[in-house]
Amino acid sequence: MNAPNKSGWKPEMNASEDGMHQGPATVTGNRALMLEEPLLFEIGHANETGVDLPEPQFGANRFGGFERNAAIGLPGLSEPETMRHYTRLSRQNYAIDLGLFPLGSCTMKHNPRLNEKVARMPGFADVHPLAPISTVQGALQVIHELGEWLKALTGMPAVAMSPKAGAHGELCGILAIRAALEARGDAREVVLCPESAHGTNPATAAFAGYRVEDIPATAEGRVDVAALKARLGPDVAAVMITNPNTCGLFERDFKVIADAVHAAGGFVYCDGANFNAIVGKVRPGDLGVDAMHINLHKTFSTPHGGGGPGSGPVVFSEALAPFAPLPVVVEDRGQYRMIEEEDAGENHSSTFGRMTAFHGQMGMFTRALTYILSHGADGLKQVAEDAVLNANYILRSLDDLLDAPFGASGPCMHEALFGDRGFAEGLSTLDLAKAMIDEGYHPMTMYFPLVVHGAMLIEPTETESKAGLDQFIAALRGLAERAKAGDESMKQAPFYAPRRRLDETLAARKPVLAWAEDEE
Amino acid sequence: MRYLPLTQNDRSEMLAKVGAATIDDLFVDVPAEARLDGPIHSLPMHMSEMAVEAHMRARSKKNLAAADAPFFLGAGAYRHHIPASVDHIIQRGEFLTAYTPYQPEIAQGTLQMLFEFQSQVARLYGCAVANASMYDGSTACWEAVAMATRVTRRNRAVLSGALHPHYTEVVKTMAKFTGDTIADSLPSIQPAPDNAGLIARIDDETACVVVQYPDILGRIADLAEIAEAAHAKGALLIAVNTEPVALGAIKSPGELGADIVVGEGQSIGVGLQFGGPYLGLFAVRDPKHVRQMPGRLCGETQDAEGKRGFVLTLSTREQHIRREKATSNICTNSGLCALAFSVHMTLLGEKGLRALAAENHRLACLAADRLAKVPGVSVLNQSFFNEFTIRLGRDARQLVRNLAEQGVLAGVSLGRLYPDHPELGDALLVAVTETCDEEDIEALAAALEGELA
Predict the structure, then answer these.
(1) B356 to each of B73, B79, B435, how far by Cα in Å?
(2) CB-CB: which of A203, A307, A443 is closest to B326?
(3) Comparing C-alpha atoms, which of B61, B69, B67 is closest to residue B405?
(4) Which fold has domain B69-82+350-452?
(5) Which residues neighbour B248 within 8 Å (Cβ) at sequence distance 6 or greater?
(6) Across the interface, do B40 and A280 touch by the CB < 8 Å criterion?
């Protein structure tokens, strides 16, 4: 095991009596490299600008009498001030580039910069979505090529590239299922989701007009197959199952479940959020999946960007392929074209329609394809293997100290799940998570899945080194010991972040959602 | 493999620690018949950074970039100059490689930026509150319709014929599944929008009226008149804007009475990128509607020491808390594009935005006047901002293809957008931004003269 703290220095060494860092007050409120940054609205001015544009010539216009005369209230900054404003803000963020980001189910892996470089090539970045087809053959080729990879990696015959993110992909899959059922005159009302499902699953099914019912889990953390089979019937449109599931386990009876659902006339939706654990090792198509979305911003390394953009292509079985949304990119003897509303009648007449303007997240396609080509078939298999190995290494390095509710259910996949059993009275998962911040880590996913009390879901991904994992494990062991020993100071954590704990109740009770001048 | 730090030695040590003889022992729960025994057959193996870059560059070079031709395409996606510092800031790892700010103590950078972004969008739109972004304009438009049905408890939406047809298709697709009734129509190819016809379609069952501003043909409708008619029937007015630069020159939808204002934010800070990722903007004029909004909201609060800070708030509307009762299933939105928008808007400021808008309009007027002199071309619009419609008396779609062969990207033909309606086939949308110059306009006019002669 590597030493977790190579310098040997610890903050307590020069703390004051109450354990806090007390230096002199500063005039600015800054603390050396920790720079407080005011709001743009407190430092900018409407007549300041960071661009050089010609002075407007006020004369006749053709706005039909709707020119905007009143002040808009948009402050500007010069270019150097703009750089400082955002650079200072950026330094208050944790990020993958800074350290391990173990958010379970989110797959926070390294984002290669080659992807960024490629996405900015003018032939991709500076191309209009409605440009004549003859002028965008390379762009269509990239969409087609990525689609072929996704089909091969999942063992599925068709793909819809346009969904904008994971939840949008879920919606795409469920709408295709509903369209397929309606096409055979089969009105079904219910979608089954495990209790451990991502919140987007039931929200998606409800949005598509279905009633959602829970499927219970077994004590070992997997879908209760007997209960599921007993619930199947002519009213069940689909089951939505995440595999590997959110307890970090592979649903080993997935094929049995899929066969039962198909026998009952329903469809199988697989939430592909956890595809990183099995890419190149297992093809969902071999397990009986009818539709699955793939988060390019998880498995295929496109950056999360502080909350998007994502991209959620959906692969389909033969049964659902005819219902996939427009547009569809097709290749014909080296030429690429799109099936859109125009020619859908001849070539794709059962489509359920269109989910978004234009053709999807091209900027994510270029990045994902770049990543896939970098890894190749051999590298992607290694991705899954290393992701799973890293998670098991964490699980088995902590399960003597932290409660691993499904630790006896076999190896985990790419995430390790713990619960808060054994913590001292009054200390919670939240306290441990906030104390992790002081150790220099982003907390893991907390209180999810809902089936485990005080859940802590850790996904290290394959892009962490063993030395990095060893330090992380040492930090978590220290925190677990403090939580079990009842170290009350954890309730105050974090101490060393740009902010102490924030009052979320106040934010919700008296919402301030936009800047207002009277705050001054 | 350059993105994988584990060495073979590491892997052996770690396998020993977890008590597995081989890596496949960790995949025992995968049924044997579904397990692949080697890399997927027929797929290529890994490639060097240099080789991947060459592979992708070859594809990039098969496309005609907007910068390399006189370029006049719009119809919901616009080419504007993006200051270099925008792209630098969005590539800072602390923004680029961060997650959704669920841990506010270490995400104040993203959160403060989102608060500023929400404030900028609200002001631009003339609204009280904007959210932290949606996927794009078209999905924001559908979410606005869904929100209006919740607010009014009615389920009929009236769409203006001059709404972007892709937006109309998205709304109609979603409504097929929710059971909402969508009344849409085709655009009337007239110099001014058909407000009277639209108002006549509003009835006592109408949840909302959806109007694009400026509309798909580039015309500027009197939203106030439509708002009044909608409100008289108890319906909401949803205004859709696909060109935010316009709002540096024309009145905001909020001040004209729109209740929900949504749109595409791509024009500010986000490149064309063949259609995505873009940036959905979503705002409400009346703060009482906030709790029916979809998507994330960032709000101001204090930390335990009384310092100002920001958090995601009112999340009881959202899927991760409310599950099937959420206002939307949206999770990941368009955070980095929101950052690009906000940085670009900060660089512009009100002064720069107004100057940018004025320059767009000046060039568009110049182009309209020049093209009107081309024999066979007539300019349709009475009013416009930076995009207008011309009629050619012949199939515009083929003409666009012909001009592309000559290296001129002339515009978007209505035939591309309304393929089933040949009666619209001779109309061409021409967008003119600050990236065009007089030489480009002359090149377009000359090419049209050549084709129409």
Answers:
(1) 18, 13, 11
(2) A203
(3) B69
(4) Aspartate Aminotransferase, domain 1 (3.90.1150)
(5) A68, A72, B350, B353, B354, B356, B357, B358
(6) yes
Of A452, A450, A458, A459, nearest to A420 by C-alpha is A452
What pLDDT is attached to residue A13? 58
Average pLDDT per block of 10 residues along chain A, 520 residues long: 74 58 83 92 97 88 96 98 98 97 95 98 98 97 97 97 95 96 94 89 90 92 95 97 94 96 98 96 96 97 95 97 95 91 77 95 98 97 98 98 94 97 97 98 94 96 98 98 97 96 95 82
Closest-CA residue of chain A to B354? A56
> What is residue B328's predicted lDDT score, i.e. its pLDDT?
79
Q: Which residues of A touch B367 (CB under 8 A)?
A: none
Residues A219 and A263 sit within 8 Å (Cβ to Cβ): no
**Confidence (pLDDT) at A145:** 97
Query: What tokens does A140 get?
Result: 């269509």
Of A361, A392, A499, nearest to B105 by CB-CB distance is A499
**Residue B97: its pLDDT value, please?**
98
How is domain B84-345 classified at the architecture level of CATH? 3-Layer(aba) Sandwich (3.40)
Q: Where are the domains of chain B?
A: 69-82+350-452, 84-345
Closest chain A residue by Cα to residue B298: A513
Q: What residue type is B54 in one-letter code?
A: A
3-state SS of A208-276 is CCCEEEEECECCCCCECHHHHHHHCCCCEEEEEEECCCCCCCCCCCHHHHHHHHHHCCCEEEEEHHHHH
CB contact under 8 Å between A63 and B220, yes or no, is yes
Overall average pLDDT of the B159-180 stretch: 94
Name the phi and psi angles at A371, rounded to 5. -65, -45
Q: Which chain B residue has its CA at the smallest distance from A98's CA?
A: B94
Question: What average pLDDT does chain B have?
Answer: 96
**DSSP secondary structure letters along A429-494:** HHHHHHHHHHTT----EES-STTSTT-EEE---TT--HHHHHHHHHHHHHHHHHHHHT-GGGGG--
Fold agreement (B69-82+350-452, B84-345): no
- Return the residue of B nearest to A386 by Cα: B6
Q: How many CB pairs under 8 A join A and B?
A: 718
Closest CA of chain B from A422, distance in Å: 23
**pLDDT of the residue at A2:** 65
Residues paired with residue B283 on neighbouring β-strands, in sequence order: B130, B261
Residue B365 DSSP symbol: H
A142/B27 CB distance under 8 A: no
Q: Retrieve residue B417's tokens.
A: 């957008």
Q: Which of residues 80-139 of A touch B (CB under 8 A)?
A: 82-83, 85-87, 89-98, 101, 103, 106, 108, 110-112, 114, 116-132, 134-139
Is the N-terminal amide bond of B277 cis, ω within 30° of 0?
Answer: yes
The gap from C-alpha A402 to its chain's centroid, in whole angstroms, comes to 26
Task: Please list every residue in chain B whose beta carbon sits closer than 8 Å to the beta carbon of residue A393.
Answer: 14, 17-18
- Nearest to A392, CA basis, from B4, B39, B13: B13
User: Residue A407: how many CB atoms within 10 A of its CB?
Assistant: 19
Partner-chain contact B309 A437, CB within 8 Å? no
B163 chain-A contacts, CB cut-off 8 A: none
> Is the confidence metric ipTM above 0.90 for this complex?
yes
Spell out which residues of chain B touch residue A175, defining contact as CB-CB under 8 Å: 173, 177
Per-residue pLDDT, A259: 98
Q: Cα separation of B401 and A133, whole Å?
A: 8
- From A349's Cα to the closest Cα of chain B, the distance in A is 14
Structural domains for chain A: 156-370 (3.40.640.10), 378-508 (3.90.1150.10)
Q: Which two three-digit tokens encode residue A303? A: 């950056």
* Contact call for residues B351 and A49 (beta carbons, < 8 A): yes
